[in-house]
C-alpha cells in the first residue's frame, strides 16, 4: 500500500512538471495575441495541478498523516466515505490553487507547506501564461 501511495505522489510530481513545461513552451500563433490552444492548455494545467495536489493530500490522509481539518476535527479521523474524502481534498486543492481559500477546510502539519507551494504555483501560473503570450505575440509580429 505504501509503495502504491509513493508511486502516486511521484506520478503527481511528474505530471505537474510536465504540465508546467508544456505551458512554458512557446507556441506561435501568427497575428493573434490569445489562442484557444493556450487557453485550453492553461485549463488542462490547472486541472492537472488540482488533481495532483489533491492526490497528495489524499495519500497522506490514507497514511494517517494529519493534513486537513474541518472545524476542529482531522479529516482522517472523520467517518467519511472514500468518495467524500476525494471530494473534500479536490475541493480544498481547487480552492487553494485558484484563490486564497474559504477557511472551511484548513491545512495542518505538513499540509500547510503543501498548501503554500500550491498557492504559490496558483499565483504564478497566470503570470507565466501572460508573459509567454506577450513574448509569442512580439516574436510573431517581428519582420
Gist of the model:
Helix content is 69%, strand content 6%.
Considering the chains and any ligands shown, give keywords for the structure.
143 residues; 3-stranded antiparallel β-sheet; mainly alpha; single chain; Helix Hairpins
Task: Please explain how this structure is put together.
It is a single chain. This protein is mainly alpha-helical and 143 residues long. The chain has a single domain (2-141), classed as Helix Hairpins, CATH 1.10.287. The chain has 4 helices and 3 strands. It has a 3-stranded antiparallel β-sheet. A hairpin with a 2-residue loop joins strand 1 and strand 2. The termini are far apart.
Mean pLDDT equals 80
DSSP helix fraction: 55-70%
Order the strands across the largest sheet as they lie in space.
2-1-3
Distance between the termini: 58 Å
Strand content: 5-15%
Tell the overall outline: elongated
User: How many strand elements?
Assistant: 3
In CATH, what is the class?
A: Mainly Alpha
Ordered list of secondary-structure elements with their pairings:
Blueprint (H helix, E strand, L loop, with lengths): L1 H23 L11 H27 L5 E3 L2 E2 L7 H17 L6 E3 L2 H32 L2
Antiparallel strand pairs: 1-2, 1-3
Helix pairs in contact: 1-2, 2-3, 2-4, 3-4
